[in-house]
Design brief:
This protein is 32% helix and 18% strand. With 468 residues, it is an alpha/beta fold. Helix 1 links the parallel strand 1 and strand 2.
């Protein structure tokens, strides 16, 4: 307490439920847990939901820290172990964990109505401020309304930032860079080019390469300019591979052609056998699901590279039981898979043979496309599967890790989503599991990302998305 820079963080229950490891994320600073937080953890521990799992995990962490400790040690604060802080770009934990061991009184104004959990936490924080004037007491909560009440009553409150992958969603990696106008003048002095089969490669060096990532796309902003993928970076030298052009009918993928540059680049990633994980972001109507499904069908049925397509998406509320209604897992998931059915209708509408031909094609596709629920993914391993995870923006980083690690040898994972449409409580554009995946796999030799910009659904949908 002699150190005027000492900070004491009071954690709200929702922070612990959102990230069970949050108590290890505050570096050298101290943490205070009010008794009402332990009560709320106890109330949330029952069940099989993600919230219940998080509550039990926090309780186990606290139990491990309190083994063989005395009441005097608890009053003095428990040393937070540093081994569980993880590799999140943070310094190891070095602070102390304090529990509420006595009645601190309530520092709330008399006019503040109600005695709910939020007000109890707020009152404890106000009392701590008065009793420890040498420490900067900070209330950490994911609850916006609690932070507003804290500001009104004179408590410094903050959101939980340690799970943010980036500071601003606007700077999220897009997967594409435009080449400067003078690029060839400054990079073509010792350029090499060669062909391998139908593929064309360039090797060059120069200042622009410092900003490139492996599997990032570069292009010239002109109709005849090149589009290429950065295949390898070694020091100041990069190897570029010209992309395939999927805009023409001759090079269509299951009858689908790219309608703009970003869609063409997305198909290059989806059809590339060297890339194991593809993330595609974009607003509604940009073609994310259609492109992924077309690429999956082409590689499953035409090239036999994959045994089948696994299609899944986040059901809101995520983690709850999908019901005791009669039917199989697929039949219970069908109400959530309208996007799949709509896109299959587009992909089979040009089949010849009339209604009988279309019915036979739909039966074939249904045999090779399996719909799975996220609730039963733990412990599974998918071999030689083309896995499409739709609406991935509603996953937490922890859930995203659990799903991507289901992929076995020969499988490819496609994660689709729009971070502007997040429905899960406590998730934002910067803390979504999809943002986390894009940022963590950026530059890895076997992963690729592209952000689709232009809507191609219809002129009505495009205009409505801008005007309404």
């Amino acid at each position: 307490m002699k150190n005027p820079k000492r900070r004491l963080f009071v954690l709200d229950t929702n922070v612990l439920l959102h990230d069970p490891t949050s108590i290890f994320r505050f570096e050298e600073h101290d943490i205070f847990l009010p008794m009402v937080v332990l009560e709320e953890l106890d109330a949330n521990k029952k069940g099989l939901s993600e919230v219940a799992r998080s509550a039990r995990q926090v309780s186990r962490f606290l139990d491990d820290m309190m083994r063989n400790v005395t009441k005097e040690q608890i009053d003095a604060g428990l040393q937070i172990p540093s081994g569980l802080s993880g590799n999140h770009g943070k310094k190891p934990a070095a602070g102390r964990l304090f529990f509420q061991t006595r009645d601190l009184g309530s520092g709330l104004p008399e006019g503040l109505p109600g005695v709910g959990g939020d007000n109890l936490i707020l009152g404890q924080t106000l009392s701590l401020q008065k009793q420890q004037p040498d420490a900067r007491v900070v209330l950490v909560s994911k609850d916006i309304n609690l932070r507003i009440k804290a500001a009104i009553t004179g408590v410094h409150a903050e959101d939980y930032y340690s799970d943010k992958t980036i500071e601003d969603a606007d700077v999220l990696y897009s997967g594409v860079q435009k080449l400067p106008a003078d690029f060839w003048e400054s990079h073509s002095s010792d350029m090499k080019s060669w062909k391998e089969g139908d593929r064309t490669f360039y090797q060059l060096s120069g200042p622009a390469i410092a900003d490139w990532q492996c599997n990032e796309f570069v292009h010239e902003d002109s109709p005849s300019g090149i589009e290429a993928m950065v295949r390898k970076i070694e020091g100041s030298t990069a190897t570029l591979e010209l992309t395939r052009d999927f805009r023409s009918e001759r090079h269509s993928v299951w009858g689908i052609t790219a309608r703009n540059r970003e869609q063409n680049l997305a198909l290059n990633l989806l059809m590339d056998p060297e890339i194991d994980c593809v993330t595609i972001l974009g607003p509604a109507g940009t073609g994310k699901t259609l492109l992924a499904l077309a690429a999956g069908l082409a590689q499953t049925l035409e090239r036999n590279r994959f045994a089948e397509i696994i299609m899944t998406r986040v059901t809101i509320p995520l983690g709850e039981d999908i019901g005791f209604l009669p039917g199989t897992e697929e039949e219970k998931m069908e109400p959530w898979m309208g996007a799949l059915m709509d896109n299959l209708e587009v992909l089979t509408r040009s089949e010849e043979g009339g209604n009988w031909g279309r019915a036979a094609t739909n039966d074939l596709l249904r045999n090779r496309i399996k719909i799975r629920s996220l609730n039963f993914m733990r412990g599974r391993t998918f071999l030689n599967r083309f896995i499409i995870l739709d609406e991935a923006q509603n996953l937490t980083p922890k859930q995203m890790k659990a799903l991507v690690t289901r992929a076995g040898p020969g499988s490819k994972v496609i994660c689709l989503g729009n971070i502007a449409q997040i429905d899960t409580p406590y998730l934002t554009e910067t803390t979504s599991g999809l943002t986390y995946l894009v940022n963590r796999l950026r530059g890895w030799a076997y992963a690729g990302h592209i952000t689709l910009m232009r809507g191609e659904r219809s002129r009505l949908a495009d205009y409505a998305s801008e005007a309404l």
